[in-house]
Write a structure and sequence with these properties.
Distance between the termini: 64 Å
Strand content: 25-35%
Shape: elongated
CATH class of the largest domain: Alpha Beta
CATH topology of the largest domain: Rossmann fold
Number of domains: 5
Number of strands: 32
Strand order of the largest sheet: 2-3-1-4-5-6
Length: 623
């Protein structure tokens, strides 16, 4: 169990840790000279089963105080009997409450300098202070470093709490927030911090944020003991390889999976009482704030969102620098001048990068779904309305593959690239696509245009309700099902034959046999042969392309699809060694060099071949 001490400056936190553990946590020379805690201090007792984090009490070091807190720690609020609750007592309590701590105790220190009446008065002040917080029912221990018995009562209580507070790894991937780094001669780079979730083992590979570099864990010391692994809730030191000392600092993370972080957050904000009283009106749009998340600190803007009611204190938080976070993480917001804590935010949704359009229906769908109590419920909500980028969902929820697979098995879903989609929604999309193709083929839809015509429908002609990234797979599934045919770039109902206008039918009978030859003439040659204007002829040829009878290979070159397929089939015989050249293709097919180049560039554009220097390689077995 990790015990985080909090309280006003000079209220005896460091002295209490010293009395409980025998360890002097003020390790810095300046701390010892000034008698003031500046950075985090650590101590352990009972073979490491209980650890203490001594945080600074001075308001100038709030950022260091926040860095020492994780939501599964036990809070020990220290208040001196002579002063009673002071400004940092209240601010530290606010921060502990806002970060979601649920367990804690209270120490009334320096009891030897006050009489009985003052001690009772102070207890009443403390009860009033904590009345609406997670410490409302916490025990108050009256202590003095001059009375070992009073310290022993605190120690016995913490040992009892430790037995009830066994941490479990849980179904989350490993995350460790780095709070200190140093090097050890003969060992190398060491990072210390609290394991926020998951587990890490010796010789495992994890990833450093923000660099994204993989690092290997050489050894681990957890709760002040050498061990082979460290789990959620434990403080640990990990000896790493793969990073230079200057690349690692407080605020960085060690993760199971690489992350580029999130920069646009949607949060549920809880204001501190003092700020709420001071503001007396709703928070201004684009309010500049300081953001503290675990050991990291950045700045950003608190923005109103049209997707949420500001009265319910749901806001967008736009950060200057991305942070590593997951659903449910807590953060602390302070004002621009660092004079006051505004409140704490619970992260409901997060997006990579700066989001320019923050009020879209798609974003509303995601934010609404992620307010569900569990990952399974959130995913179920998302699947009921459309496809889900399962990798993005898994990353934000910090879930291992095993949990995602369990959720998939409980649903009737399909995986399409990185999307997960409910089978029912996929069927609805198919019906929408079929209806759209039928409409395109209706008698009153015979006008030829870019996406729909009497020949059928192109991919980008599908209804906007169907996400663009799914359209090609959807149409190809319908072709595989025998519901649609794919002819010359057009999707038609199976067996449909588009009726050619009379002038195109006459032209096709004249040009078809000529263009079916491997050495097809250009549109200019055809125009001269039939004494037609080249521009008018190409208009007609492009219409034949839309009817699926021709393919435009180059600027003035057209071929029937069947001829191109025969040329592709012939090309398969050239596969050898490092590939084939233009000259080899020309000689093998018996066509001219210029036309050969045009055809090969068309093959490249279709992904049938790929040019590598002076050679080409075949990427698949059919055009």
């Amino acid at each position: 169990m990790i015990v985080t001490l909090a309280g006003h400056v000079d209220h005896g936190k460091t002295a209490l840790v010293r009395a409980l553990s025998g360890v002097e946590t003020d390790r810095l020379a300046e701390e010892q000279r000034r008698g003031l805690t500046i950075d985090l201090g650590f101590a352990y007792i009972d073979a490491g089963t209980i650890g203490f984090v001594d945080v600074p009490g001075h308001h100038r070091f709030i950022h260091n105080m926040v860095a020492g807190i994780a939501h599964h720690q036990h809070a020990l609020l220290v208040i001196a009997a002579d002063d009673g609750p002071m400004p940092q007592s209240r601010e530290h309590l606010d921060i502990l409450n806002l970060l979601g701590l649920q367990h804690g105790s209270i120490v009334l220190s320096k009891s030897d300098v006050c009489d009985t009446e003052r001690l009772e008065q102070c207890r009443q002040e403390i009860r009033q202070l904590v009345a609406s917080t997670f410490l409302a029912n916490a025990p108050i221990f009256t202590t003095s470093t001059q009375d070992p018995g009073s310290i022993e009562s605190v120690l016995m209580h913490l040992r009892a709490q430790q037995k009830q507070n066994e941490q479990t790894v849980g179904q989350r991937l490993f995350r460790l927030a780095v709070d200190r780094t140093f090097t050890i001669k003969g060992a190398g780079l060491v990072a210390t911090g609290t394991v926020h979730c998951g587990q890490v083992q010796v010789e495992s590979t994890c990833y450093h944020f923000p660099s994204g570099k993989p690092v290997r864990v050489r050894s681990i010391r957890a709760q002040d003991r050498i061990t082979s692994n460290a789990s959620s809730g434990e403080r640990c030191a990990v000896n790493l390889t793969g990073l230079a000392p200057e690349e690692l600092s407080r605020g960085d993370w060690l993760l199971t999976e690489p992350s580029s972080g999130y920069q646009t957050l949607h949060i549920r904000l809880q204001l501190t009482n003092s700020f709420a009283e001071k503001a007396k009106q709703r928070i201004k749009h684009w309010l500049p704030v300081h953001i503290y998340h675990n050991t990291s600190h950045t700045t950003g803007r608190l923005a109103h969102s049209k997707l949420a009611d500001p009265e319910k204190l749901h806001f967008d938080l736009v950060l200057e620098q991305p942070i590593v976070c997951q659903h449910g993480d807590r953060l602390i917001l302070r004002d621009q001048g660092l004079d006051q804590t505004i409140g704490g935010g619970e992260i409901l949704f997060a997006e990579q990068g700066l989001v320019r359009k923050r009020n879209t229906s798609q974003r509303r769908r995601l934010i609404t779904a992620h307010q569900a109590d569990s990952a399974a419920a959130a995913l179920d909500h998302l699947l009921s309305t459309g496809p889900v980028d399962i990798k993005a969902f898994q990353r934000f929820r910090n879930l291992p593959d095993s949990v995602i697979n369990e959720i998939k098995q409980s649903q009737q879903t399909l995986t399409i690239d990185s999307d997960l989609i409910h089978a029912k929604v996929w069927s609805e999309y198919k019906q929408l696509a079929l209806d759209a193709v039928k409409e395109a083929l209706a008698p009153d839809t015979q006008q030829v245009d870019a996406t729909t015509s009497g020949q059928g429908m192109r991919e980008n002609g599908l209804p906007k309700l169907i996400p663009p990234r799914l359209r090609l797979r959807l149409l190809n599934d319908l072709v595989s099902d025998g519901k649609l045919d794919h002819v010359g770039g057009w999707y038609q109902l199976s067996g449909h034959k588009a009726a050619l206008p009379t002038h195109l039918e006459v032209l096709w009978k004249r040009l078809g046999p000529l263009l079916s030859h491997p050495q097809a003439p250009s549109s200019g040659d055809l125009a001269k042969q039939f004494k037609l204007a080249q521009g008018e002829l190409e208009i007609a040829l492009n219409q034949l392309v839309k009817y699926g009878l021709l393919v435009r290979v180059a600027e003035h070159r057209y071929y029937p699809q069947s001829t191109l397929q025969e040329l592709a089939k012939t090309t398969l015989g050239l596969v050898a060694g490092e590939g084939f050249s233009v000259a080899q293709f020309r000689d093998h097919t018996g066509i001219g060099r210029n036309i050969a180049i045009e055809i090969l560039e068309y093959f490249d554009s279709r992904g049938f071949t790929r040019r590598e220097g002076n050679f080409r390689k075949i990427l698949r077995q059919a055009l």
